[in-house]
Amino acid sequence: MEERNPPVVTVYASARLAEGYAFARPPVHPRIIARIAAHLGITQPLACALDVGCGAGRSTDALAPIAQFAIGIEPVSTMLMHCRTVAPHAQFAVARAEALPFAAQTFDLITAAGSLNYADRDLFLPLVAHTLKPSGTLVVYDFSAGKRLQDDDALAHWFAEFARRYPAQAGYALDVRTLDWARFGLRLDAYHEFEIAVPLDADAYLRYILSETRVEHAIARGQSEEAIRDWCAPAIQTIFGTGARQVLFTGYVAIAALGEHSRA
Q1: Of 16, 88, 171, 221, whose CB count within 10 A is highest?
Q2: Where are the domains of the chain?
Q3: Which helix or strand (DSSP H or E) is residue 187 part of?
Q4: What is the pLDDT confidence band of residue 14, given thresholds at 50, 70 and 90?
Q5: With contact defined as beta carbons under 8 Å apart, do 216 and 19 qualify?
Q6: How large is the angle between the packed helices 225-240 and 154-165, nearest 10 degrees?
Q7: Across the chain, what does the average pLDDT equal?
């Protein structure tokens, strides 16, 4: 049975992780938002967008090209330590998806990037229906860790060992296609899977991989960041060499709206 009020995930109450999310994550969000804008036919900036569970603010900053005013909300205040640097033109608030502090019909667009997994959907999705404008859109998206290269299997083999050594926390998986959207006054208009290639060199990939929550969980269990870095760095340097390589990120985008009739 789904917990109605799941606790805030404490791994994100880490200054180290907040810095990593702010400055070490590859620029995947802007590429996804560009695809979403093309799918929705957004040619002029929308008036107001909300990013739910914005983390350090990278996903909120990605809304700048398509929204005149963007707000990011995040339940863990630590994650917002660098939000003014990350997204200087956005506004931020500490708030939970289950208690959106906004009036009815406020937003043209609401995004949730990997945050719907943590939210109580029975509480959050009715609030989406309440705060969206009649023509508004909810976009839910997520993407995997960058664990494959475009042109060989070396990184995939290494990442498999990394994942065994530093396991992820269970309970994150969510298939948005299985949700009863109609029960919340919404309809699922479209669902797309994607693969995006981002060029990263060895240093950038090492900084990124150390910002993964797997590493934060390992540190919480008593391992040192230095020891984890020392294990990761030699193999990453060997795989990437002296230049940038195309790292693949796979994911999905789900687009929902109010009402009964699909626009897909």
Answers
A1: 16
A2: 10-169+177-258
A3: strand 186-200
A4: very high
A5: no
A6: 170
A7: 93
